[in-house]
Amino acid sequence: xxxxxxxxxxxxxxxxxxxxxxxxxxxxxxxxxxxxxxxxxxxxxxxxxxxxxxxxxxxxxxxxxxxxxxxxxxxxxxxxxxxxxxxxxxxxxxxxxxxxxxxxxxxxxxxxxxxxxxxxxxxxxxxxxxxxxxxxxxxxxxxxxxxxxxxxxxxxxxxxxxxxxxxxxxxxxxxxxxxxxxxxxxxxxxxxxxxxxxxxxxxxxxxxxxxxxxxxxxxxxxxxxxxxxxxxxxxxxxxxxxxxxxxxxxxxxxxxxxxxxxxxxxxxxxxxxxxxxxxxxxxxxxx
Length: 287
Fold this sequence. Notes:
It comes from Crepidotus variabilis. Keywords: Metal-binding, Zinc, Zinc-finger. This is MYND-type domain-containing protein. By secondary structure, this protein is mainly alpha-helical. It has two domains: 2-188, no CATH class; 252-279, no CATH class. The chain is built from nine helices and eight strands. The strands form four sheets. It has a two-stranded antiparallel ribbon with strand order 1-4. It is globular.
């Protein structure tokens, strides 16, 4: 057992990484994570020297940070096709997931406040990673949903959404990612609003997952996961629009009566009520 601890497996993975074997390193990170989740104290601190402020101090958190970093890097090309086992491990921690494996591991975090915070951190960063993977597949709608799910979970622990963050370790790591993801989602929503305005002027649909085809000789700039810029002549809308003002957002609220018409806030819902009232119906009840 002593030769196969989470720490020793992580160290072997690091050696493989520095030798240029990124696949072996990723497999090693997975083994280290599973060893800790199955057999060790999930909140145990890593027995290493000084680290940057935004590095988790927990052994599990430190390995996880490297693990998700590999899955996010488009240059490494680790995805569901090329690294299915790693991606399956990632998806176990998707916010809202309820797999049997998660139900087995979750209680190991729940006995202490530290454990519960660490568990949320894994879920949040898993959600961000799944969002980036969807973005790399050019699935903007799924990317936006994964981002929003993770951001909603981050709201349940104040240090994760405190900027600037004076904490160190896990909370600094997550809060930095939350801020970056919020900024990315804000840009995505603004672009959706502009693209939907163009689509409407061309007589095209403007709902979530609708694809906007640009006019001839008109291209848009797309920022790839690795920072590269490409020109595209069509784009998928990732969000729906407020029924009143037309702004596109992930955090729209449903009409409390019909459960289908969406609004960005109470003010838009109130001002739109005279127009919406004639068609607003409660959903049909069956059974």
